[in-house]
Amino acid sequence: MPYVNIKVTKENGGLTKEEKQKLIKGVTDLLQETLHKNPASTVVVIDEVDMDNYGLGAEQISDRRKRGE
Amino acid sequence: MPYVNIKVTKENGGLTKEEKQKLIKGVTDLLQETLHKNPASTVVVIDEVDMDNYGLGAEQISDRRKRGE
Amino acid sequence: MPYVNIKVTKENGGLTKEEKQKLIKGVTDLLQETLHKNPASTVVVIDEVDMDNYGLGAEQISDRRKRGE
Amino acid sequence: MPYVNIKVTKENGGLTKEEKQKLIKGVTDLLQETLHKNPASTVVVIDEVDMDNYGLGAEQISDRRKRGE
Amino acid sequence: MPYVNIKVTKENGGLTKEEKQKLIKGVTDLLQETLHKNPASTVVVIDEVDMDNYGLGAEQISDRRKRGE
Amino acid sequence: MPYVNIKVTKENGGLTKEEKQKLIKGVTDLLQETLHKNPASTVVVIDEVDMDNYGLGAEQISDRRKRGE
Fold first, then answer.
1. Which stretches make up the 4-oxalocrotonate tautomerase-like domain (chains A, B, C, D, E, F) (predicted)?
2. Are D7 and F14 within 8 A, CB to CB?
3. Chain A residues lying within 8 Å of E26, measured CB to CB
4. What is the DSSP string of chain E?
5. What pLDDT was estimated at residue F20?
6. Residue F57 belongs to what domain range?
7. E12 and chain D in contact, CB less than 8 A
């Protein structure tokens, strides 16, 4: 019954369905292996955040990407 | 002054305005009845999440819905 | 499979077990009645926040309480 | 390495890039000045929420705005 | 620069340091493998929630555990 | 009516009351100056997270601190 929230920037059109599935399965498996949590009640929510809305080092990710970071 | 965040999947075009209003009022009333919290400063935020971005039982809800779950 | 997070201040020793149960049941019932969501996979997490850590109107709730607010 | 999440309603087309940058820089500077936190690992995420999805005083912000509030 | 929040119930005294480390490393590796995200700016926060404060199926986890669930 | 959540590690006994007040006031003022938001309904919640529970670069902050980082 764990709850996991993953926030990543939305880049190049956003994550593919397969990438999201891989994250959901990977986190659920990790919680089962590490803490024996029941996958059936493990909830995972992925938030894709606009690069203008995500800041690191006092800058927007969109600006960091323009510098190749 | 409580803060409540509700995350649900976005299905069939998403929640109607009335459904959102019902959730906001229902949660605010519940906090007033149960804990005597002041509705005037009770904040409720509803996040509608894409079915590909919401996982349960290591699967995306979109896939579970295809199986009628 | 909705996820609900409720943040309230921790006052007078915190919520009783019964108050928490009432909030969990009340929110789960509301989601079932409003959106026909399955209670079995509805997750509710209650965070009790120290009054010094909760701000409203640029003030800590602890200070507002000292003024009887 | 602090993490800050800011939720505001999406009004008049949403925040401008400059407003988002100002929030990101302002919060990062505040954490550096107050707690000497390293800007390089300070993460800020801004969520812009639909006015129908944001409730205060048991009402949707969209309805409060119609009354000029 | 992804941000991940994991909420689990606090049981049997809570997670060990090693379990927390395993979750932090496991999620960071998953994001690197799946989305090529830089571990150096991947933030993971683990919240351990009291079993009375965590609800599933309209019940507190503490009560479900008493029934062996 | 914005909502802001600040997560920082709990170090050296945690933040002082004054530091928390400074963060609450600083963020509320920033939202008023930048977006003309009403302080009276601006909610700020500060979460102090155990250093074992906070990960950056696939490591727990507690371990990074032992290396003087």
1. 2-64
2. no
3. 30, 34
4. --EEEEEEE--TT---HHHHHHHHHHHHHHHHHHH---GGG-EEEEEEE-GGGEEETTEEHHHHHHTT-
5. 98
6. 3-66
7. no
Per the structure, the count of domains in chain F is: 1
**pLDDT for E57-69, tens place per residue?**
999 999 999 988 8
Q: Which of E3, E9, E59 to mutate to test the interface with A (most CBs of A within 10 A)?
A: E3
pLDDT, tens only, D41-65: 999 999 999 999 999 999 999 999 9
Rounded to the nearest 10°, the torsion over CA A1, C45, C14, B25 is: -150
Residues of B in contact with C1 (CB under 8 A): 9, 54, 56, 61
Report residue A4 as tokens: 């996991």
Which F positions 50-69 lie with beta carbon below 8 A of chain D?
Answer: 54, 56, 61
- Number of residues assigned to chain B: 69
Tell how far CA F53 is from the center of its chain: 15
Strand partners, E45: E5, F54
Confidence check: pLDDT of C69 > 90: no
Which long-range contacts does F59-63 make (Cβ < 8 Å, 24+ apart)? F59/E21, F59/E24, F59/E25, F60/E17, F60/E20, F60/E21, F60/E24, F61/D1, F61/F9, F62/E17, F63/E21
- pLDDT tens for A4-58 read 999 999 999 999 999 999 999 999 999 999 999 999 999 999 999 999 999 999 9
Axis crossing angle, helix B17-35 with helix C17-35, rounded to the nearest 10: 160
For residue D69, name the pLDDT band (cuts at 50, 70, 90).
confident
3-state secondary structure of F27: helix
Strand E3-9 to A3-9 pairing: antiparallel
pLDDT score for D6: 98
